[in-house]
Amino acid sequence: MRTRFRPDRQLTARMVLTAFLLGLLYVAFVAVLVVLIRSVVVIVLIAGGLLVAQFFFSDRIALLAMRAQVVTPEQEPRLHGILDRLCANADMAKPRLAVADTDLPNAFATGRNTRHAVVCVTTGLTRRLDTTELEGVLSHELSHIAHRDVVVMTVASFLGVLAGLVTRFAFYSELFGGRRRTDQNTALVLALVMLVSAVVYAVSFLLIRALSRYRELAADRAGVMLTGQPSALASALTKISGDMSRIPKDDLRTAQAFNAFFFTPAVRSGSGLAAILSTHPTLERRLDQLAQLSQQLGTAGR
């Protein structure tokens, strides 16, 4: 379904490349497991079942984990009004709107397609931002739905889940046929599987993180092109990042599982190695891009 969100060819290319590389990694991983483990089918079936469940029920799982509730226009007229205007401008179907009762200021979008999409905001976000700032955040989240990068992120996480499951099976199952082998052979197979799993997890982790950082910049750009107000999004980013340090550590730890999908991470993005491992670009990088967009829009309007 086409919308007025501009297609982002670089984002699409990166999603395709990431999916292709993860696919190759997955094939190689399964090939190694077939050599080392006779009952590899059990692992693949379990991991595949988790992927299917995550794909079809990602919206419900996310709302349940965040203790969020879908709200009606009567319950949240302000948010629904903003979402109605943005969806009309973007010429896209309106997703469901949910609210999570937490002081953590954030938002995220999830769902396998536009018909099953949901945008969730927290009460901490609505208390801190004005209407124009909320428009910037919600347009950012709508662009994730329009570009379908939420689905790609969900599927891309499959390989990491599979690698993690293999590691657990190595410790807690009898898939290696230990009773039919010597202890030395069993230990060797265990070590090899652990090594392969660790390498696969590390590579998939880095690929997904790189895609995640780029998609956040792409969503910032697309959201601003829809609203025409880069300063509003920059203000929202600054407010949220500044207030994140005031959130209780327990709440931040609970929310960190959603970092890849949040508007801003529950922890501040660092530099160097921390930046490579982060799900989001640094605040400075996002603000610099918004400043450039502000100049471009100003020049185009003259």
Automatic annotation (TrEMBL):
One of its GO terms (biological process) is proteolysis. Binds 1 zinc ion per subunit. One of its GO terms (cellular component) is plasma membrane. This is Protease HtpX homolog. The chain crosses the membrane at residues 12-34, 40-57, 150-171, 186-208. The active site is at E141. Its cofactor is Zn(2+). It is found in: Cell membrane. The keyword NADP does not apply. Belongs to the peptidase M48B family. It comes from Actinocatenispora rupis. GO terms for molecular function: metalloendopeptidase activity; zinc ion binding. It is a multi-pass membrane protein. Pfam families: Peptidase_M48.
